[in-house]
Amino acid sequence: MNLLKAAELIDKYSNCKVCGNDKVGNGEGVLNIDDNTFFRSCKCGWKIEIDTDK
Q: Where is the DUF3797 domain (predicted)?
């Protein structure tokens, strides 16, 4: 994933859409960016996975 697309997705999904949590790590949530996927989850159960190849 290119840097500009990753930055755009981080900005859009940095806060949980359910509870507003903006933390990741230490059981608070996950932010994982790989070659083709962006994954963000929250301790409340909200999650989103985006495949940038599609």
A: 1-48
Structure tokens at 40: 């963000």
For residue range 9-48, list pLDDT tens digits in order: 999 999 999 999 999 999 999 999 999 999 999 999 999 9
Q: Which residues contact 28 (CB under 8 A, 6 or more apart)?
A: 21, 42, 43
CA atoms within 13 A on the CB side of 2: 3
Q: 0.90 cut: is pTM over it?
A: no
Q: Are 44 and 21 in contact (CB under 8 A)?
A: yes
